[in-house]
Amino acid sequence: MIDKKQLQLLVGKRIKLLREQKNIPQQDLAAKCNIEKSNFSRLEAGGTNPTIYTLYKIAENLDVSVSELTKID
Question: Which domain holds residue 52?
Answer without folding.
Answer: 4-69
